[in-house]
């Protein structure tokens, strides 16, 4: 086997079948704005055309435009559902030849490209190249209108659409529009009901990445590893998110204040504070929130429901994150490590909080005075002092408090929990 330390392939991938399409897309499915390009052009001519010629091929369904006829033909299959590339070993079919080639490698088990930093293996050299940027932090794709840069070209394309406001991909069923083809493909499955099936149980998923994560539960395989602290995960997106703990990067910026976040979902929740919207309200105690999932979680305070069960003991939790932390007690694993002092934690959230001891960062600012806090929960408690609000109420006796943790502690009086600390 060849040395894999520099990300070079360990073997040369073989051709994985002819992948010939069984049908040909008729040009009647696509509109052509100008004359068709001359057949038999060289690749260099096609590249020149992309820069110098207009995007003459246009989709009649959603307005998508491209300089290349074959790109339009592939795009039309999103609308028609056509999958002309058939696997000769199972009933799988794909829209593109590359999709079939990737699938065929699953039958052979061949993943010739290996990362020398963490052992991750990939079917495609391009996939390995993208993976290596997780370790190097390289972001070679630069926006020419601002200082944004990205690891992948598709992320840059998505970003550029924000400058233009262009959303070229549209659903023919309901008019939904998006900047990314993959988002439209996912959306279309809402209408078709198409799902990816697990070959080891009856689980199915709307997204392939979700199915890949599920399969890892059967194998116990965690392909993605952090080179800084050894954290491993079955999901590439989890590793990318984890790396932000070490880099301190917070790429999602608020355009109304100086707030920034490591996750887009955190920024979305923050933006609702500017709008003042809290549309979700608890019928028991009047608690309001901007996020529906927060209300669902809050309701368990009243019902006592703990739907997340440990399969190794009788522990149960109201939150999945609490169950995940508990499961690590069985394994003894603490995947998150501080590079400053060696502190290890079971949760990324705990490591993020810990890192502020070294940096002195207090990112949570009060908008009514000069108070700031290292933790969001501490700021929330402070803000209630300004409002005089006590949103958490006990349904048994009417006790009210400013903090959820205080209500949870109080509820143990009624439940007779012997672990109550006086």
UniProtKB/TrEMBL annotation:
Output the superkingdom of the source species. Eukaryota
Single GO MF descriptor: DNA binding
Any Gene Ontology biological process = regulation of transcription by RNA polymerase II
Listed A to Z, the keywords are:
DNA-binding, Metal-binding, Nucleus, Repeat, Zinc, Zinc-finger
Asked whether the UniProt record includes Zinc-finger among its keywords, one would answer: yes
Give the start-end ranges of region Disordered.
1-47
Pfam families in the cross-refs:
zf-C2H2 (PF00096), zf-H2C2_2 (PF13465), zf-H2C2_5 (PF13909)
Q: Does the keyword Lyase apply?
A: no
InterPro entries the UniProt entry points to? Ikaros_C2H2-ZF, Znf_C2H2_sf, Znf_C2H2_type
Task: Return the SMART domains for the record.
Answer: ZnF_C2H2
GO CC entries: nucleus
Predominantly, its location class is: nucleus
Query: What's the protein here called?
Result: Zinc finger protein 135-like
List the source organism. Branchiostoma floridae (Florida lancelet)
């Amino acid at each position: 086997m060849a040395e894999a330390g520099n990300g070079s392939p360990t073997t040369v991938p073989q051709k994985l079948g002819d992948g010939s399409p069984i049908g040909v897309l008729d040009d009647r499915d696509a509109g052509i704005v100008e004359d068709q390009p001359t057949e038999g052009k060289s690749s260099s001519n096609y590249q020149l055309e992309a820069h110098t010629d207009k995007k003459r091929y246009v989709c009649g369904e959603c307005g998508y435009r491209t300089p290349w006829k074959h790109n339009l033909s592939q795009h039309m299959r999103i609308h028609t559902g056509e999958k002309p590339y058939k696997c000769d070993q199972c009933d799988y079919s794909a829209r593109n030849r590359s999709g079939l080639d990737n699938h065929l490698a699953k039958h052979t088990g061949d993943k010739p490209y290996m990362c020398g930093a963490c052992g991750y293996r990939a079917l495609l050299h391009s996939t390995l190249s993208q993976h290596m940027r997780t370790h190097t932090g390289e972001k070679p794709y630069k926006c020419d209108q601002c200082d944004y840069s990205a690891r992948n070209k598709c992320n840059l394309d998505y970003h550029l659409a924000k400058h233009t406001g262009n959303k070229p991909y549209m659903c023919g069923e309901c008019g939904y529009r998006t900047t990314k083809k993959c988002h439209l493909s996912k959306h279309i499955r809402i209408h078709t009901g198409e799902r990816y099936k697990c070959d080891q149980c009856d689980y199915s998923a709307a997204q392939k990445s979700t199915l890949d994560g599920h399969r890892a539960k059967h194998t116990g395989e965690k392909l993605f590893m952090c080179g800084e602290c050894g954290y491993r995960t079955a999901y590439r997106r989890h590793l990318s998110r984890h790396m932000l703990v070490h880099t301190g990067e917070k790429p999602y910026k608020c355009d109304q204040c100086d707030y920034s976040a490591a996750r887009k979902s955190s920024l979305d929740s923050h933006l609702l504070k500017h709008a003042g919207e809290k549309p979700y309200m608890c019928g028991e105690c009047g608690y309001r929130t901007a996020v529906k999932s927060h209300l669902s979680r809050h309701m368990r305070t009243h019902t006592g429901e703990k739907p997340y069960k440990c399969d190794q003991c009788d522990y149960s939790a109201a939150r999945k994150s609490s169950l995940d932390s508990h499961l690590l007690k069985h394994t003894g694993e603490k995947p998150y490590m501080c590079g400053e002092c060696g502190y290890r934690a079971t949760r990324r959230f705990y490591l993020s909080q810990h890192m502020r001891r070294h940096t002195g960062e207090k990112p949570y600012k009060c908008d009514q005075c000069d108070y700031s806090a290292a933790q969001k929960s501490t700021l929330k408690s402070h803000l209630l002092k300004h409002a005089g609000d006590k949103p958490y109420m006990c349904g048994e006796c009417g006790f009210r408090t400013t903090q959820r943790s205080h209500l949870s502690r109080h509820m143990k009086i009624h439940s007779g929990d012997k672990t109550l600390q006086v």
